[in-house]
């Protein structure tokens, strides 16, 4: 009989994989803190309305991908499919409008019911930032620069491309919506069923359609940039000027859009060719209407999110290694207590120490090699005087008798 297996679309983060994830998340946290973003943690589940409102009642995420359930108290609850909505809900419910600008960093698991594939699971992890309360291009510049700095720190500067576009303000988008509907209407019979509905409710979302027929139709659609008013164009020009000044390279992608009405002005994605079809590794934009739509005050916001699994794939397993321990080995079983005391003392001083637990001296030494230990400390060898141990550098093979008090100096030297 087969043993229990993880649920489809989930997986176990074993130590090596977790080390990769931690490298990604800690790099993100370190870089984002330099830009003034501090970490917050919101609940893994929220009232379903938090996401159905913000992602759009008819979006694929809401209609097909959310993990939703009813509690014993008849509350409609959803496991979070993304991070921004929870951050904005937290901003409202904690009354943070008096503290703007609010700059939050987050890391944690997200959940979407979709077909699992390489780098995309039903439980996955994201890092992200949100800057709430600043309506000037300076915020967009800073947020994009932080994303680039993060990817650069991971070593990806040469394999990612920043794609940039402007969605304009509401006046610009309304003008574009009319132009887009005029273009799409003659093709209505050829659109997918989802896009036929969107033609009435939210035509911009047709531009994001995954349907091949829809994609063929929209490839010649008018561009949003053709409808930017003077204010929107000036905002976009200032964002580009700021990125140029900071040395953040980008290409303009006039077909990069966001379908929901609360998005405006800057939209951006960092893409790569190293992951096959799943090319976006970090994406974001400005969402000035989101918090008001959720029932809060009119407060602007801009941010991004990045998938940790995809970044871990790009890093590769060899990028991050587990810490190398010290192995404390009793020369014989009747020296186990002395070995425990030495191990405990070293742990109190901050060292990573393994013991092997059982087996003869040879087996424990083999275990030290398997664990990639860099030092073996042998307790109870006959040639050692009281209070002394045998110190063996496993990198060089050098061995020397030393007092327990003298161990830290030799350990630091063996670390290199």
Automatic annotation (TrEMBL):
Keyword Hydrolase: no
Signal peptide: none
Binding site for L-histidine: 82-84, 112, 126, 130, 258, 262-263
CDD domains: HisRS-like_core (cd00773)
Pfam families, per database record: HGTP_anticodon (PF03129), tRNA-synt_His (PF13393)
Predominant localisation class: cytoplasm
Location in or out of the cell: Cytoplasm
GO MF term (any one): ATP binding
Location of the Aminoacyl-transfer RNA synthetases class-II family profile domain: 9-323
UniProt subunit comment: Homodimer.
Protein name: Histidine--tRNA ligase
Organism, as annotated: Terasakiella brassicae
Gene: hisS
């Amino acid at each position: 009989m087969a043993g229990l297996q993880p649920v489809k679309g989930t997986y176990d983060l074993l130590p090596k994989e977790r080390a990769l994830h931690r490298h990604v998340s800690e790099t993100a946290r370190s870089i984002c803190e330099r830009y003034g973003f501090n970490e917050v943690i919101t609940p893994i589940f929220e009232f379903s309305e938090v996401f159905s409102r913000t992602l759009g009642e008819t979006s694929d995420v809401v209609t097909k991908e959310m993990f939703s359930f009813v509690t014993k108290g008849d509350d409609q609850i959803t496991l979070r499919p993304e991070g921004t909505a929870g951050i904005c809900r937290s901003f409202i419910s904690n009354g943070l409008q008096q503290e703007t600008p609010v700059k939050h960093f987050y890391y944690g698991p997200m959940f979407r019911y979709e077909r699992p594939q390489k780098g995309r699971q039903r439980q996955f992890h994201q890092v992200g930032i949100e800057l709430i309360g600043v309506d000037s291009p300076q915020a967009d510049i800073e947020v994009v620069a932080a994303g680039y700095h993060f990817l650069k720190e991971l070593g990806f500067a040469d394999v990612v491309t920043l794609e940039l576009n402007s969605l304009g303000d509401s006046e610009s988008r309304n003008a574009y919506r009319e132009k887009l509907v005029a273009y799409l209407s003659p093709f209505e019979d050829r659109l997918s069923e989802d896009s036929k509905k969107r033609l009435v409710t939210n035509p911009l979302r047709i531009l994001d359609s995954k349907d091949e027929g829809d994609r063929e139709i929209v490839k010649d659609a008018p561009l949003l940039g053709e409808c930017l008013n003077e204010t929107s164009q000036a905002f976009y020009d200032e964002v580009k000027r700021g990125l140029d000044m900071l040395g953040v390279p980008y290409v303009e992608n006039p077909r990069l859009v966001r379908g929901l009405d609360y998005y405006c002005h800057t939209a951006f994605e960092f893409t790569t060719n190293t992951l096959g079809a799943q090319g976006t590794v970090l994406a974001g934009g400005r969402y000035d209407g989101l918090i008001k739509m959720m029932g809060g005050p009119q407060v602007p916001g801009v941010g991004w999110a990045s998938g940790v699994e995809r970044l871990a794939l790009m890093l590769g397993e060899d990028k991050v290694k587990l810490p190398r321990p010290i192995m404390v080995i009793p020369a014989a079983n009747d020296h186990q207590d002395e070995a425990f005391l030495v191990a405990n003392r070293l742990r109190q001083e901050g060292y990573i120490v393994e013991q092997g637990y059982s087996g003869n001296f040879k087996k424990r030494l083999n275990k030290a090699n398997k664990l990639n230990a860099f030092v073996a400390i042998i307790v109870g060898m006959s040639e050692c005087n009281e209070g002394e141990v045998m110190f063996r550098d496993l990198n060089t093979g050098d061995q020397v008798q030393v007092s327990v008090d003298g161990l830290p100096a030799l350990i630091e030297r063996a670390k290199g």
